[in-house]
């Protein structure tokens, strides 16, 4: 199924039914009183989070949701039928935004959490309602009100405890597949990861959710590559893992690659840039131990890295168990 994480929809609640003007017409009762019934309320529109969904693709093809109108009232004090509600199901993590004002209306982050997004119109009153001791034959009624109409932007932001970021081919997908249940594509060419993937990691009887997003490259903030459009999926993460390839196949400099990712992250969002980050030096199995220590020391010294950093090999699972254990302890705090 194609991964769609953003769409625009229009919701239109049902109008309320009109009240009725009617008088009793019965044999031997020449002066029957008013018996016009009320109208029915218009149908509401709800948006509900469902953990069985993981994409907004269904809402890409259906853009307008119209709830049923309430029926008009009728004689014999019969009230109109209420319009049926509509429930729009979305994945957990969906953010609802007012399309015109860009105001965030709600974040649906729990299963079965729902919100009334468009309220149906109120029913009109029949002439029975206006009967009084001084007005025995009221010829007055009220009309039902219109239902709410809203244009909405829906954005899916995945819910994960830990997120990965780095250059293409840094080994993010390999790490996620080795330590979790995620089934992401792994290959030697760039951008094998085309959309975010979630995986569950279990370590020392504790578990956390990790997110893998496509690689970030230079000028990603100007639309180059894929990673920048998926960076929003790291917003809910408590910890970011910056994966660094110590032996890039294209011969690039790891220090330059680190700076590229950090700069693009800063351009995208200061809030995301300031999130806790750990530096994960990957592919240590491809380097001689002495050369490895020299390279890592140079990177840490030159970039003045004060955050935690780890040396791992995703492919051979070297250091990955210790990394997962440290993440669990960090998240527990």
Helix content: 10-25%
Which residue ranges are poorly predicted, with pLDDT under 50 across at least 5 consecutive positions? none
Note the beta-strand portion: 15-25%
Q: Estimate nothing, just give the exact number of structural domains.
A: 2
- Which sequence of SSEs, written as H and E, runs from N to C? EEHEEEEEEEHEEEHHEHEH
How would you name the CATH homologous superfamily of the largest domain? Answer: P-loop containing nucleotide triphosphate hydrolases
Q: How do the strands line up in the largest sheet?
A: 10-11-9-12-13-14
CATH topology of the largest domain: Rossmann fold
Structural Rg: 30 Å
Which word captures the global form? Answer: rod-shaped
Give a brief rundown of this model.
This protein is of the alpha/beta class and 333 residues long. The chain is built from six helices and 14 strands. The protein starts with 5 loop residues before the first strand and ends with a helix.
What's the helix and strand layout?
Blueprint: E1 6-12, E2 45-50, H1 58-61, E3 64-66, E4 86-91, E5 94-98, E6 104-108, E7 114-118, E8 149-156, E9 162-165, H2 172-179, E10 197-203, E11 206-212, E12 239-245, H3 254-268, H4 270-273, E13 277-282, H5 289-303, E14 309-311, H6 320-332
Parallel strand pairs: 1-3, 2-4, 9-11, 9-12, 12-13, 13-14
Antiparallel strand pairs: 1-8, 2-7, 5-6, 5-8, 10-11
């Amino acid at each position: 199924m194609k991964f769609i994480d953003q769409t625009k929809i229009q919701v239109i609640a049902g109008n309320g039914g009109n009240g009725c003007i009617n008088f009793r017409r019965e044999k031997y009762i020449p002066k029957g009183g008013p018996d016009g019934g009320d109208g029915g309320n218009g149908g509401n529109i709800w948006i509900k989070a469902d953990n069985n969904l993981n994409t907004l693709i269904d809402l890409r093809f259906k853009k307008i949701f119209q709830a049923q109108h309430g029926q008009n009232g009728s004689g014999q004090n019969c009230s109109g039928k209420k319009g049926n509600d509509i429930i729009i199901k979305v994945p957990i993590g969906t953010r609802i935004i007012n399309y015109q004002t860009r105001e965030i209306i709600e974040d649906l982050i729990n299963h079965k959490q729902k919100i009334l997004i468009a309220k149906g119109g109120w029913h009109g009153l029949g002439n029975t309602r206006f009967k009084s001791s001084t007005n025995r034959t009221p010829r007055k009624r009220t009309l039902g009100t219109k239902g709410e109409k809203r244009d909405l932007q829906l954005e899916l932001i995945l819910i994960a405890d830990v997120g990965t970021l780095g250059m293409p081919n840094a080994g993010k997908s390999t790490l996620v597949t080795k330590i979790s249940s995620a089934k992401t594509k792994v290959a030697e060419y760039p951008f094998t990861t085309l959309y975010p993937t979630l995986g569950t990691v279990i370590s020392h009887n504790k578990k956390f959710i990790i997110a893998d997003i496509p690689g970030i490259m230079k000028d990603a903030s100007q639309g180059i590559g894929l990673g920048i459009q998926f960076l929003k999926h790291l917003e809910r993460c408590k910890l970011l893992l910056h994966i660094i390839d110590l032996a890039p196949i294209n011969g690039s400099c790891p220090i330059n690659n680190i700076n590229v990712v950090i700069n693009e992250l800063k351009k995208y969002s200061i809030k995301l840039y300031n999130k806790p980050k750990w530096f994960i030096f990957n592919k240590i199995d491809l380097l001689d131990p002495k050369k490895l220590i020299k390279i890592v020391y140079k990177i840490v010294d030159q970039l003045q890295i004060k955050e935690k950093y780890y040396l791992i090999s995703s492919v051979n699972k070297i250091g990955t168990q210790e990394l997962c254990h440290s993440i669990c302890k960090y998240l527990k705090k």
